[in-house]
Amino acid sequence: MITSTPRERARTIEALETKIVACERCPDLRAYCARIATEKKRAHRDQEYWGRPVPAFGDFAARVLLVGLAPGAHGSNRTGRMFTGDASGEWLYRALFRAGFANQPTQRDKNDGLVLRDALITAALRCAPPGNKPTPEQLRHCFPYLVREIELLGDLRVVVGLGAIGTRAAETALASAGYAFATRHAFAHGAESVARYGDRAIVLLSSYHPSRQNTNTGVLTEPMLDAIFARAREIVSAV
After folding, report:
1. Residue 1 domain-assigned?
2. Who is most buried in 4, 130, 178, 207, counting CB within 10 A?
3. What is the DSSP string of the chain?
4. In this predicted model, what pLDDT tens digit does every residue of 119-164 receive, in sequence order?
5. How many domains does the chain fold into?
6. Containing domain of residue 127, as a range?
7. pTM of the entire predicted model
């Protein structure tokens, strides 16, 4: 377990995120992201794309960690910030704002004033994958970063898996960080399980991903997403 001070942990996480931005473990993904950053989308042709691995965003002393799938080619791969610049982020940050984890409900770019409180957003994969479909090998390359983030969040109490891939990555990373699950659940919106390490317990919550495919079809509604973060707030408030 981590025994350093919160300030030391925050500096270590910051150094880790800097390392992630410089990662070259997947040459195919680096080439793809660089190409997208050059070709651009018509609506964003006058903008400079980030085009690199996207670091975690939020509070480095967070008690709530969100694990998404991967940056969007013209969302986070463009803006350089998790869940920023696309419709998924619009849904997510509105919900985080309503639950008190964000200072505002809107997101646009890294200079929009958005701040997270007690929450940190990361992903199973840090580079935008073609077709938004990461390969098992790509996920394996990124996996150690997620494990390390969990190890460094000394006050972590809740992990929210956004989508099946995010949830599975979070569950496996918790186990790799030394946490044991008494029981594990099949992926379902609102499902939760508890992972323990000594006298520490972390609750894993599953949520449908706020993708257009889910929100446009009604698979995920705003009240459903609100319920996830209301539950996260309830857990951390009880500690």
Report:
1. no
2. 207
3. ---S-HHHHHHHHHHHHHHHHT--S-HHHHHHHHHHHHH--GGGTTS----SPPPPEE-TT-SEEEEES---TTTHHHHSSTT-SSHHHHHHHHHHHHTTSBS-S---STTS---BSSEEEEES-SSPPGGG---HHHHHHHHHHHHHHHHH-TT--EEEEEHHHHHHHHHHHHHHTT-EESS-----TT-EEEEEETTEEEEEEEE----HHHHHTTSS-HHHHHHHHHHHHHHHHT-
4. 999 999 999 999 999 999 999 999 999 999 999 999 999 999 999 9
5. 1
6. 6-237
7. 0.96
